[in-house]
Write a sequence for this structure.
């Protein structure tokens, strides 16, 4: 298992505060209209929703990873993947600045997906309120395409993974990293939510991502020289 897999998992884990802001309300809304309000009945909905969301991430990673690997292979262009890795490092640095609340420019990247989301959003909303856990699976599949700077930043790592399978694995790892935040909000674990939203946690996470991004960029530049 290569370093990109672990890096993607850390991005998802450290970006928990962003996940709560972007998708937290959605996860909390999953229980609207369910039969009964017992805590135990939330878990099948959360499991199916997050399974669908992770499948969408893996599909996106496979598409991006396979496409860029094919381009590099067709052109015999290994230098191109090194350049893309430098781009991925820059994206991670920008993401770190965003998570640490030092610079919000990465939100502009989210606008790139608005056109697609205008088509997907009505289909996702039409599934609410969810009548059964099974209905949460397609809902998660659709919601996985929500425009998100965190997702787009991780997709840049999937692009340099070298294959469709590796790209899918990178995005799956990212999705697994987001699970604690999404499970917390869905199960109303308020203490964990407060911790994930804490500014000190966000900035400590951002510093770790920033250092990893700088280190990755340094290695990419050395390979290009």
């Amino acid at each position: 298992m290569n370093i990109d897999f672990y890096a993607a998992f850390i991005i998802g884990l450290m970006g928990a505060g962003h996940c709560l802001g972007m998708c937290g309300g959605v996860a909390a809304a999953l229980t609207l209209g369910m039969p009964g309000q017992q805590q135990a009945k939330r878990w099948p909905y959360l499991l199916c929703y997050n399974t669908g969301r992770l499948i969408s991430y893996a599909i996106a990673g496979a598409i991006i990873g396979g496409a860029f690997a094919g381009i590099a292979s067709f052109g015999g262009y290994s230098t191109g993947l090194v350049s893309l890795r430098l781009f991925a490092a820059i994206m991670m640095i920008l993401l770190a600045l965003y998570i640490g609340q030092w610079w919000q420019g990465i939100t502009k990247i989210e606008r790139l997906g608005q056109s697609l989301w205008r088509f997907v959003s009505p289909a996702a909303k039409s599934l609410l309120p969810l009548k059964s856990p099974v209905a949460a699976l397609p809902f998660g599949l659709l919601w996985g395409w929500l425009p998100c700077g965190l997702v787009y930043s991780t997709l840049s790592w999937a692009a340099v993974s070298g294959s469709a399978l590796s790209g899918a694995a990178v995005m799956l790892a990212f999705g697994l990293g987001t699970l604690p935040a999404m499970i917390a909000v869905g199960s109303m674990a308020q203490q964990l939510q407060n911790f994930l939203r804490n500014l000190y946690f966000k900035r400590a996470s951002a510093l770790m991502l920033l250092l990893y991004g700088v280190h990755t960029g340094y290695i990419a530049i050395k390979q290009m020289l």
Remarks:
- The radius of gyration is 18 Å.
- The mean pLDDT is 80.
- The chain has one domain: 3-31+43-224.
